[in-house]
Amino acid sequence: MIGRFLAVTSILAGFLLVVTSGFDDRNAAVVEINGVNAAVANVISPLSFGTMTMYWDQRNAALDFAQSNTRVSNIQASDLDLLQIQQVSRHGSRFPTDNTMEEITNLLDKLQTNYSSVIPHWLRNYSLPYNMSVAGVLSSTGFEELAEYGKRTRISDPLLRFYDICDRYLSEVKHNPNASAELKAYGRSSQMNESIAYLKSRLNLPKSAVLTATDTRAAFAACAFDIMVYGTPTQWCSIMDQAFLNRLDYAEDLEAFYEQGAGFKINYEMAAVLLQDIYTYMKNFTTGNTTIVGNLRFGHAETTIPLMTLLGYGDRTKLLSSWTDEQVDSRGFRTSVLSPTASNIDFRLYQGKTDKKYYVSVWIQEVEAPLPGCGSLYCELSKVEKLWGYYLNDYKFKTACKKQR
Questions:
Q1: For 301-392, where are the alpha helices, taking DSSP H only?
Q2: 85 domain-assigned
Q3: How many domains are there within the chain?
Q4: Residue 20 within a domain
Q5: pTM for the full model?
Q6: Mainly localized where (predicted)?
Q7: Which of 134, 280, 292, 376 has a CA that sits 20 to 30 A from residue 240's CA?
Q8: What b/e sequence results for 290-320 when a residue is b if at least 16 CB atoms lie within 10 Å of its CB, and e otherwise?
């Protein structure tokens, strides 16, 4: 059964991509991260764009998602039969959203209207290579990423878009200006001021030119999408160095940490509604109440980051606007690792060939990651039930998501 499921994942992935992309991207290129790495060698890293980072092969990277050591276990993969796969994936590379396009357009208008005689020649007659009709739509690269992932291996709003219907989250975080205080403070920091000054110099602008943190982040996003969609480092990215990207990458992570990560408890606890559904499918398989061997769910970074955080993956150390460049560079929370485009989380259910016990393993970006609190790659289902006990048995989404008076 599981073999049959794996055999059809590529077909299903292709179908889902066709029906969800809605746009035939004839101008964009299919971009491979290795090719981009070669093109920008010794200049910038293409893995420096937060959640705008292209999917990259982490299977041989020395990453510790759980910030913990894995102990030696007597249970090995050869001792187990794979019974079921539950997967949560993020969409692949896409075009910028309408908000990002608007910010890039505003920056472009400012530069071409006021400084056309001094900005780099390529920028003087430059126009966006995409328009609002493709805002947020999968690019050719995004299609290829997910199709290739499907070869290697049901949409329900309350489960995958819990962040849209949790009133408390919307009130306390998403639409609360105070929730983004650290990001705003970073926008006024010496690091951001230096980044703005650097961008001015690279654009040949006078010191008196008015560029904002929003303008600077728009230029950063333009570079990210140049690489993601077209694989070109010769336009926006050509005016940036790695130090500039590192600071802007941190700004993206500051936003994600306080909006989707561990910055506020409600951010990740509301993902329990999805975890409950995943567990129910596993439990029902063990009791014979379902024969489903695979359940594929496709969402966004707003889906995957809260779920990973709830499970204990990623560093929960508070990100601060006051951090030095050294602290920024050594941070553990990086969305370029946790949630690049096409990021994926697998929950795999096994049964021991000899002891007949049920085991669970979690895979992130195709890497087997020890489950926090268990410490080994294969955790007994009974132990998983205890680890997740509160969120499986006591957490009530509707109650937790009511606005606090």
A1: 301-311, 325-329, 335-338, 381-387, 389
A2: no
A3: 3
A4: no
A5: 0.82
A6: membrane
A7: 134
A8: eeebbbbbbbbbbbbbbbbbbbbbbbbeebe
